[in-house]
Structure formats: structure tokens, C-alpha cells
Amino acid sequence: SDDDTADAGGNGGGDDVISIGFSQVGAESGWRAANTKSIQDTLTAENGFDLSFSDAQQKQENQIQAIRSYIAQGVDVIAFSPVVESGWDAVLEEAKDAGIPVILTDRAVDSEDESLYESFIGSDFVLEGETAGEWVSENLATEPINVVELQGTTGAAPAIDRKAGFEEATSDNPNVTIIDSQTGNFTRSEGKTVMEGFLQAHDDIDLVYAHNDDMGLGAIEAIEAAGLVPGEDIKIVTVDAVKDGMQALADGKINFIVECNPLLGPDLAEIAKKVVAGEEVEKRIVVEDQSFTQEQAVEALPTREY
Ligand code: AHR
After folding, report:
1. β 102-105/256-259 pair status
2. Which atom of ligand 1 is found nearest the CA of 28?
3. Tell me: the pLDDT tens digits for 58-70?
């Protein structure tokens, strides 16, 4: 309608409903499912939003297409979680030219021009990798250990940063050797397949460091199928702390998990309202994460939200 057109760009027309286009990475993990639920449960009509949601199936071209269609629709705000870090400048320029503010959630872009987005809400992935590395260094690497790494999606901020953080935190401990490292694309099935390959190639694996719970859960299946005991014969450290991961931790199959909080919907709603109202927002909102040992998982599980 004419009203909608007048609202494009976020400067408010007669109605207060905020139209928001959200381009999600995909449905690759339990974390992503919890993140999608948080966004859909928060950006509701009751809360004053008209949400258009799309799933990019882990493909950057699908996200660029979705963002272009939100620009064409003239939504008030665009939000997205970029599947990979690079290659966003052109489409972000298009949004800027159309006067539509962009909010990044969960994952960062590597654009040098920070005026291309209003705010980035999400965890500190380098810190998550460091927390994992510190725990390994202090608790497992008191003697030499061989580590295999299951990386997240190639080029994704959490894969780049969790790798860097772990390497940094273990670099001063000569007992830690990363003997193999491959992407499992943040999925359980690829985590399993890659772990099967690791087990065939190496008979001396002490630890799996997986960039998310789902790949760690896939690795558990491969380790058990090989007749070994996960959490004992081969230790496992992961990131996310979603329900299935926490259950495996409580069951002794995973040894340590660094949390990555997926409940970004409320922060996104607040920032979107401020941006549309023309208020100042923080450029970077860091979501706080905890970490869990096996004992802590047993305690935390009954009241976990996701
Ligand atoms: O970007 C966050 C990461 O993406 C989560 O840790 C992982 O599970 C998801 O796929």
C-alpha cells in the first residue's frame, strides 16, 4: 500500500509496525534451530513486528538474493546472520542506498566500512576458542596429546575465530599437537564422516576439538562405531552447549563445552526498535557465554532453555 511505501527506510508513517526481513544461515545445527526459534518467537505481531524470514541453506548467494528482495519490498529493517565473513559490501551498499538499516546477528562480516551496518549482536567467537584451548591445556595436556579439529563452515566467522582462539590458547603448551583439521560444515552428518576419515588416517588421536556440538555428536557416533569409548579413549571438547550436547556431556561422552548463547531475538528486537526510531545504538553488542564441565552439565541440564 502507499503507507508501506511511505514507511520504507524506517522513518515511520502512520502505523508503528516494524517490517523486518531476516535472512538466516540455514538449519544446520541444534544451535541454529534454537536461534531461529528465539527470533521467530520475539519478532511477532504482538511485539510490533511484521517478520519476513528466509533460510539460506548455508549458501551465500541465497542470502544475497533474500536481502535484495527485502530491499525491493522496502522493509524497515534488514537483519541477517552472514554464512561467511567476506563478500557483502555490494549488497550492503544497495541497502544503504535504499535507506534501509542493517543489523548483523550472530556472525560478523569483514567489511572495512562499518557504516554499512548499524550494529552487530553476537558472541565473541575468539574468546570461545580460547576458553576451549585453556581448558584443554590445563586439564588434558599435562602430557603430550594429539588433537584432531572439526572446523565449522569454511570462511564463517565462528570457524575462523574458534580455530584462532584455540591455537592461541594452546600455543604456549608444547604438549598440544593438532595433527589434523578439516571442515565438518557445522553438521552432525559431516562431523561423523570427517571423524571416520580421521580414525582411518590416525591411530593415535587423544582429543577431538569440534567447533560445535553437532559435529562433536557426529564424532561420537564414529568413535563408538570404531569400538572406542568417547570421553575416555578419545576426549571431546565442543562449543554451543545445546540440549543434545549438554546431555552427552552429562553422560560422560563429551568432556567440556563452551557455551554460545543462541537466544538473540530479544536483543535484536530492542536494537531494531531503536534503529527505526532513529536512536543511537551500540555498534557491537557482545553476548556473554559460560562453559561447562561434566559435573556442571548434570546440574544445569534440568533448567536449560535450549
Ligand atoms: O554461528 C554460530 C554457529 O553456527 C554455532 O556455533 C553453530 O552450531 C552454528 O551452526
Report:
1. unpaired
2. 10
3. 999 999 999 999 9
Which residues sit with their C-beta closer than 6 Å to ligand 1?
A: 28-29, 31-32, 106-107, 158, 186, 212, 239-240, 260
Q: Give the integer Cα–Cα distance in Å for 203 and 165.
A: 26
Question: Quick one: which atom of ligand 1 is closest to the CA of 158?
Answer: 1
| Total residue count of the chain as it appears in this document | 306
Residue where the block lists cell 541465497: 62
Contact by Cβ (8 Å): 73, 52: yes
Q: 26: which residues sit within 8 A by CB, 6+ positions away?
A: 32, 55, 56, 57, 58, 83
Query: Which pLDDT belongs to residue 15?
Result: 65
* Residue 11, all three cell numbers: 522513518
- Nine-digit cell string for 301: 541440564
Q: Give residue 107 CA to ligand 1 midpoint distance, Å.
A: 9
pTM over 0.90? The answer is: yes
> How many Å apart are CA 175 and CA 101, to the nearest integer?
48
Q: Is 77 helix (H, G, I), strand (E, B) or coil?
A: strand
- Ligand 1 center to 32 CA (angstroms): 6
- Rounded (10°) angle between helices 213-225 and 188-201: 50
201-227 pLDDT per residue, tens: 999 999 999 999 999 999 999 999 999
DSSP 233-254: TBEEEEEE--HHHHHHHHTTSS
Q: What is the ipTM of this complex?
A: 0.99
What value does the mean pLDDT of the chain take? 95
Atom of ligand 1 nearest to the CA of 186: 10
**Cell 519478532 belongs to residue:** 43
